[in-house]
Amino acid sequence: MTTTSTPSFAPLQNDTFLRACLRQATDYTPMWMMRQAGRFLPEYRATRAKAGSFMGLATNVDYATEVTLQPLDRFPIDAAILFSDILTVPDAMGLGLSFAMGEGPKFAHSVRDEAAVAKLEVPDMAKLQYVFDAVTSIRKALNGRVPLIGFSGSPWTLACYMVEGAGSDDYRLVKTMMYSRPDLMHKILEINADAVALYLNTQIEAGAQAVMVFDSWGGVLADGAFQEFSLAYTRRVLAKLHKTWLGATIPSIVFTKGGALWLDEMEQLDCNALGLDWTANLTKARIIAGGSKALQGNLDPNVLFAPPETIEAEVIKVLNAFGTPHSGPGFGPTHIFNLGHGISQHTPPEHVAALVEAVHKHSRLMRGAC
């Protein structure tokens, strides 16, 4: 732990998200959105302009706190998520992360041979102190309104960027290494898994009340390769995570884009919830995994470009696909509403307002609590 003392925080006023993560009954289906602090909000764009760059925004505690709270000030959503980037960990490994306007993330140094792999090691968490300071600052600024989610990229997803040196359309370089030098790929993934676990645990110690692993590129793998190069290392991360901190249970969520094919195996992970993209069938997912995991998802983000009445109809389809959640004491199937991937920067904010209202309204109706 790199923080100097344990921070104290206000008591939580809305624990609906955490209860749903833990498969406990809730009065309505809680919701939040991946990339909810982002470019679709004009106030975010104004803060981003002040910061001068994406990294200027992410590494400034005050700015990161400000943009994390912006969607909560607009919409009655049920969780905040730390404003940061999944590539902070490899950046701390010395790969030199930068964001060119309109081009996405790039690394100055890619990892493509034995010499580059040999240099990798779990980074000193002091290099990521700006993240943990932001977690503490955001948690204090929330003042108990809703829980704060911390996150990291999965070991495989981080490896994709590290080997490719940027985003990729075909994953040619990382898959070439995976198939031709699996020993090097496994070495990268071992280091990444240990780094991710330490990173998430330090976020928890700084104030995160739940953590999420984004396996954004797990779905690009072939069956068999997914289990060996992605799932196994996500499992390694989860095995090292704090399950409780200062007496509070810390739920963990795993999201694999394109991962519905492997739900029966993901159901066995030591996490509390599984995130699903829009290709997954929630009814089937509940049958496969709902007996042990909360499910999160899975509206197609592009639904938000349709008129509000269509958004409401699509929300009802998603809620009905999951079915009536658990009610009463004990534990049972629960649902956290989310998009099937990150919200588009072009989304009209008023359509998001319609989304949130529809989720809360109709999920209450399903429970007979209107």
TrEMBL record:
GO biological process terms, semicolon-separated: protoporphyrinogen IX biosynthetic process from glutamate
Catalytic activity: uroporphyrinogen III + 4 H(+) = coproporphyrinogen III + 4 CO2
Lyase recorded as keyword: yes
Swiss-Prot/TrEMBL keywords: Cytoplasm, Decarboxylase, Lyase, Porphyrin biosynthesis
Top-level taxon in the UniProt lineage: Bacteria
Chief location: cytoplasm
CDD domains membership: URO-D
Site features described as Transition state stabilizer, chain residue numbers: 85
Pathways per UniProt: Porphyrin-containing compound metabolism; protoporphyrin-IX biosynthesis; coproporphyrinogen-III from 5-aminolevulinate: step 4/4
EC code: 4.1.1.37
Domain Uroporphyrinogen decarboxylase (URO-D) residues, every copy: 30-39, 149-165
Subcellular locations according to the entry: Cytoplasm
Gene3D superfamilies, per database record: 3.20.20.210
Coiled coil: none
GO cellular component: cytosol
Keyword hit for Cytoplasm: yes
Positions contributing to substrate binding: 35-39, 85, 161, 216, 341
InterPro entries: UROD/MetE-like_sf, Uroporphyrinogen_deCO2ase_HemE, Uroporphyrinogen_deCOase
MF terms in GO: uroporphyrinogen decarboxylase activity
Summary of the function given for this chain in its UniProt record: Catalyzes the decarboxylation of four acetate groups of uroporphyrinogen-III to yield coproporphyrinogen-III.
UniProt-listed HAMAP family: URO_D
Family of this protein: Belongs to the uroporphyrinogen decarboxylase family.
Subunit structure: Homodimer.
Protein name, UniProt field: Uroporphyrinogen decarboxylase
Organism: Rhodoferax fermentans
